[in-house]
Design brief:
single chain; 307 residues; TIM Barrel; binds pterin-6-yl-methyl-monophosphate
């Protein structure tokens, strides 16, 4: 299989010198990435932050509440969403990225388009979050390699217009790890340094609720990809996703509304941080920041107990 061959090449290739590459930020605890969706139609907060000043203010609030990174996106990926033209995406994100970067925030750009990533980096973004893992735009890996910035690669099987058509797996953990391994090998072939890469199981992206739970339960294996001999940092983005609303459904089957799943998001954050996640991507920062602090202390106490 082409993917296996790519992964084998990745394993054999000596790692290049880090040079000017900005490696993924390390942290004593799991990082918290706050979401700023500058969209009319994202599933939990669509329309709230479409105005650039409102979006910037929201980003600053997330940082004040303890978020380490703000993730600015201008294209909804909710199930069924159609693509926005690139001009529309640029006009949504660039003023917000510029303002948040100028205020000293660590900004990530959430985009599948290389040109949007390039312009956002020029405007001050320092990290690229690509939910397609480089599949939507073949130019993306070259932009990442040239810029030398951290790059989040999410497991993805296709655009949101048909989110659940490709949600078929015999073994979801093995298949997600194998497909991520292929994407990582392809990025490295384009010159991306492995130290730039973060992987993400892509909760909800071509995944049914049970797939998401199975992936979360296997979190400690997601960063160890077949054919690669380093463990990649893992980002978990469960916040307000539909599988939480389904878990918390009322007795009559009505799904819990998005805003009613923030406590469940915090519970996932605590468990993900305890399982060693590098970062959680969340819509509301404060409770999640508390949760990662609890998880960190718990991990330290566990380590102390075995010394
Ligand atoms: N999900 C959404 C948007 N961006 N980024 C990463 N890395 N992983 C995700 O799972 C992800 C993402 C969609 O959720 P939203 O509309 O609530 O932002």
């Amino acid at each position: 299989m082409a993917g296996e061959a790519q992964a084998d090449n990745a394993r054999r290739r000596p790692e290049p010198d880090l040079g000017q590459v900005a490696v993924v930020p390390g942290a004593p605890r799991c990082l918290v990435m706050g979401v700023v969706n500058v969209t009319p139609d994202s599933f939990s907060d669509g329309g709230n932050w479409l105005d650039p000043d409102a979006a910037t203010g929201h980003g600053l609030d997330l940082i004040r509440d303890g978020a380490d990174i703000v993730d600015v996106g201008g294209e909804s990926t909710r199930p069924g969403a159609q693509r926005v033209p690139i001009e529309g995406e640029l006009s949504r994100v660039l003023p917000v990225v510029t303002a948040l970067a100028a205020a000293g925030c660590y900004v990530s750009i959430d985009t599948m388009r290389a040109e949007v990533a390039r312009q956002a980096l020029r405007a001050g973004a320092r990290m690229i979050n690509d939910v397609s893992g480089g599949r939507a735009d073949p130019e993306m890996a070259r932009v990442v390699a040239t810029a030398g910035v951290p790059y989040i690669m999410t497991h993805w099987r296709g655009h949101s217009a048909d989110m659940y058509g490709p949600a078929t797996y015999d073994d979801v953990v093995a298949e997600v790890r194998a497909e991520l391994a292929e994407r990582v090998a392809a990025a490295m072939d384009s010159g991306v340094h492995p130290g730039q890469i973060v992987v993400d199981p892509g909760l909800g992206f071509a995944k049914l609720a049970d797939h998401n739970w199975t992936l979360l339960a296997a979190l400690d294996r997601i960063g160890c990809l077949p054919g690669h001999d380093r463990r990649f940092p893992v980002l978990v983005a469960a916040s307000r996703k539909r599988f939480l609303g389904r878990l918390l459904a009322a007795p009559d089957g009505e799904l819990r509304p998005f805003l009613g799943s923030d406590d469940a998001t915090i519970a996932v954050t605590a468990l993900a941080a305890a399982a060693g996640a590098w970062c959680v991507r969340v819509h509301a920062a404060a409770g999640n920041v508390d949760a990662v602090r609890v998880a960190q202390r718990w991990r330290e106490a566990s380590a102390e107990a075995v010394r």
